[in-house]
Design brief:
The complex is a heterodimer of chains A (272) and B (258). With 272 residues, chain A is mainly α. Chain A has helices spanning 2-6, 9-26, 35-55, 65-92, 94-99, 105-132, 144-168, 171-186, 193-199, 201-208, 211-223, 231-234, 245-265, 268-271. In chain A, helix 2 (9-26) crosses helix 6, helix 6 packs antiparallel against helix 7 (144-168) and helix 7 (144-168) runs antiparallel to helix 11. The longest helix of chain A is centred in the first third of the chain and has 28 residues, at 65-92. Chain A is globular, with a radius of gyration of 19 Å. Chain A starts with a helix and ends with a helix. The model of chain A has no long low-confidence stretch (mean pLDDT 89). Chain B has helices at 39-48, 82-89, 122-132, 137-151, 166-179, 196-209, 222-228, 246-255; strands at residues 18-32, 53-67, 71-75, 97-102, 106-109, 184-188, 214-218, 231-236, 239-244. Chain B is globular. Chain B contains eight helices and nine strands. By secondary structure, chain B is α/β, with parallel strands linked by helices. Chain B has two domains: 2-104 and 183-255, P-loop containing nucleotide triphosphate hydrolases (Rossmann fold); 122-179. Chain B starts with 17 loop residues before the first strand and ends with a helix. In chain B, strands 5-6-7-3-8-9 form a six-stranded mixed beta sheet, with helices on both faces. Chain B has a three-stranded antiparallel beta sheet with strand order 2-1-4. The chains are: A mainly alpha (272), B alpha/beta (258).
């Protein structure tokens, strides 16, 4: 049982120790160390900003576009880091799983928590950028942790499901790499969703039903500008129930992932 | 034939409470017959109606009780199922049928230094290793000094493990194993480590806990069985063929191939 187990002290200690180790070792041996946790997403942002904002002139009419883009890239990085690390976790920690008995979900959660720590550091950078760019903080900034939690649950669900399959079929790692590439273009990170809406409203609606898109648009709404198109505002009142599709998908993914992971975890020690 | 009969000798420990009760344990492994790895082969096998693996009975109806403070040696040839039994006791493997009941905390050492990371300091590794065995930091604080003293590595504890010699490494791991405060200790083939002086220290230690702590030891060394164990179990092809005093079992083991 995943939830009650968490309150067992030994499990919390192990989770903390493994997370600490993961975080400590992530940038081991690099000259800049933890600074990479900041530099990597910033560099990715810089590339996308130069290519899409400066050269291709995307997002011209969106206020505070650089911050708008930074929010997108930061949380996209979080999603990719979370899922790729989480999917690999069981296989990477095979030595432990074959030799000691502990709840297996701990290795998945601990490896994804590094991504959570990274995104929290990056949130500070976003706040600084936002203030420099002249955005006035509003109470909606406090909704960011809720949205982060939603995205984390979604990532964790994927990590549990694919991580469990990955034990037997390592192909998952490669398949997921490709999926990530495809998903990147299916989520309005570099292009404004309004651009899609002008050619096809239906396509824009479909894109916004994706929980990742919903979270990123909501984050932009909360942090950057109230002019952001969100799933909630874009899906019309006549399809009221559709507004809940992203959150239902998140709950579904997490339940499916945990259920499958739990079912398969008994055999991990033998199959790795 | 004497070795086929299962006799349980009444010994001084049989009046102690039962701490591990193993009943009719069965464990099978699926061995792939051809390369059944990867999606393609799996689909192929499914289409052809081939199972793609054959079942190997590793544990075939194992039953025994362990009483408190018994030092039990489990012996048998390679592939007889000793390690699988130990892993099943440690709940790393789940049996197909049968049950394992354990009262008290069980500290398993299937391998020394599980999770040891060369880039962490010795101190960090001790705590990480402890967490893996289910000990909180507070419990580890209490054991820490004893572990370090037994390993005789106090001045090196803030060094990264990659700077340790393999002997120092194994001494640290071994010290955690025998200083970890659990009710039951599971050890797999880990008796002789380090230099002669350290080996002597370990030997003394095992002699001293004989009769004071519940230990299950998997070993190929009949000397160890004779010296430390209060009872021994011989396993052949996943079955207990002899469960008796150490001397009888050690002799039977040595007769297996002579």
């Amino acid at each position: 049982m995943a939830i009650p187990n968490f309150f067992y002290k030994g499990n919390r200690v192990l989770l903390r120790e493994l997370t600490k180790t993961d975080f400590k070792l992530r940038y081991q041996g690099s000259a800049l160390g933890y600074l990479w946790a900041l530099l990597r997403p910033l560099m990715m942002f810089a590339i996308l900003y130069i290519v899409f904002a400066k050269l291709l002139k995307f997002g011209g009419d969106i206020p505070h576009y650089p911050v708008y883009l930074l929010v997108g890239t930061t949380f996209w990085s979080f999603f990719t880091e979370c899922t790729s690390q989480g999917i690999q976790a069981i296989v990477n920690r095979g030595d432990l799983i074959r030799k000691v008995c502990f709840p297996k979900y701990i290795v998945v959660v601990s490896s994804t928590l590094t991504a959570v720590i990274n995104v929290l550091i990056n949130l500070i950078v976003i706040a600084v950028f936002a203030l420099i760019d002249g955005i006035t903080p509003t109470w909606t900034w406090f909704l960011v942790p809720v949205l982060l939690f939603e995205l984390y649950c979604f990532s964790l669900g994927i990590a549990f499901l694919l991580g469990a399959i990955n034990v037997k079929y390592r192909d998952i790692t490669s398949i997921w790499d490709v999926c990530i590439q495809a998903l990147f273009y299916a989520v309005p990170i570099i292009y404004p969703i309004a651009m899609v809406a002008t050619s096809s409203v239906a396509a824009a609606k479909v894109i916004l039903l994706n929980p990742i898109a919903q979270v990123i648009q909501d984050l932009r709404y909360c942090i950057v500008t109230k002019e952001t198109i969100t799933t909630w505002s874009f899906v019309g009142e006549e399809h009221f129930i559709w507004k809940f599709v992203p959150i239902i998908l998140v709950i579904f993914m997490l339940s499916l992932g945990s259920w499958y992971f739990r079912k398969k975890s008994k055999k991990f020690a033998e199959e790795i | 034939m004497a070795k086929k009969s299962t006799t349980i000798q009444a010994n001084t420990y049989s009046n102690n409470p039962v701490v591990i009760s193993v009943k009719n344990l069965h464990k099978n492994f699926k061995l792939p017959t051809e390369r059944a790895w990867g999606l393609k082969q799996a689909i192929f096998n499914r289409l052809k109606g081939v199972k793609g693996y054959k079942e190997l009975k590793v544990l075939n109806g194992i039953s025994f009780d362990v009483h408190q403070n018994e030092f039990i040696g489990i012996v048998g040839r390679n592939g007889s199922g000793k390690s699988t039994l130990l892993k099943t006791l440690a709940k790393i493997y789940f049996p197909e049928s049968g049950s394992v009941e354990i009262s008290g905390t069980l500290v398993p050492f299937i391998e020394l230094g599980v999770g040891f990371n060369p880039d962490l300091t010795a101190r960090e590794n001790v705590y990480l290793n402890g967490a893996l065995l289910g000990f909180s930091n507070k419990e580890m604080d209490a054991m820490y000094d004893e572990i370090v003293d037994f390993a005789e590595l106090r001045e090196f504890m803030d060094q990264k493990l990659k700077n340790f010699s393999s002997g120092m490494n194994v001494r640290l791991a071994f010290s955690i194993a025998i200083r970890a405060k659990g009710d039951i200790l599971l050890l797999d083939e880990v008796l002789a480590v380090g230099d002669a002086a350290f080996q002597q220290k370990c030997a003394d230690y095992f002699a001293s806990i004989k009769g004071h702590q519940t230990v299950i030891l998997v070993t190929h060394s009949m000397d160890s069985v004779r010296k430390y164990c209060t009872r021994a179990i011989l396993i052949e092809k996943g079955k207990i063929t002899l469960d008796s005093d150490p001397e009888t079992v050690a002799n039977a083991y040595q007769k297996l191939w002579s």
